[in-house]
Amino acid sequence: MIDQARTLWFTEFAERLGASVDLASSVIAEAKLDDAQFKRLRASCLRYIHTCLDQHGTSADQSTLLKTAAAKLANRTPNGILLPKQEVEAEFNHLHRNVAKWLSSLSVDDLVDQVFCPITLRLVKGLPDPAEDSRPYASVKLHADVWAGEPTDSVNIHIPILGDLERTGVHFFGPPDNFDRDWLRPLKNYNEGIELEALVQKSPIQLRFGYAYFADATALHKTIKSNGGERLIL
Question: Looking at residue 170, what is its pLDDT?
């Protein structure tokens, strides 16, 4: 089970955010963003993607924009991260500043030692991709971020920006009884944790636009692809 001291810290952290804590896991929280803050973050992400595609303006068809970006962007990794490059440095820094402003507004500095930089913008394809989805650290596999080397006392933030959240979402899970400290270490392949798949309890949390999801690095989760559209998460 998750360390009790860590659960207590996460509960205090979530209460400071005014967030609701998922009872199944105790280490996942959902918090509403201010409408203006969310619009700024979404606009900054769109500006970044347009520049990556060497386009300008706002696309009337954002699903087509995401599909084009997922297919054509050379700076997209197999796990969907849109890497910052020199050619789009200004737009990425603009997005980074808006994220920093939002983080500063949360008033949790006394509970946090440091913030990992740079931020990541992840564009996930809606259709299954055997080449991408079979990689050792493919996000479609059940995993905790500590398995990829994240510190056990870290929290990852997921902010849905655009796309198909219903069919290309993220499912969170409560830990099984045998999820002890032996599991809180880097793994060479997420498949090493496949035995937990039949033991976990799915969280009722469903991703929504305008909300931020704070997930402890020990939280079990995976990307879901149900033949939907692309999905963009900050």
Answer: 92
Query: Which residue is associated with the tokens 């469903």?
Result: 206
What secondary structure letter does DSSP report for 32? E
Per DSSP bridges, beta strands 20-21 and 201-202 are unpaired
pLDDT attached to residue 55:
62
The amino acid that residue 135 corresponds to is R
In the three-class reduction of DSSP (H, G, I as helix; E, B as strand; rest coil), residue 172 is classed as strand
- Cα–Cα distance between 170 and 155 in angstroms, integer? 16
* CA–CA dist 144, 215 (Å, integer): 10
Give residue limits of the domains in the chain: 4-233
CATH architecture of 4-233: Sandwich (2.60)
Query: Residue 177, Cα to own-chain centre: how many angstroms?
Result: 25
Instruction: Give the separation between CA 18 and CA 32, rounded to whole angstroms.
Output: 8
The answer to whether the beta carbons of residues 18 and 31 sit under 8 Å apart is yes
Q: pTM here? A: 0.90
Distance CA 58, CA 65 (A): 9
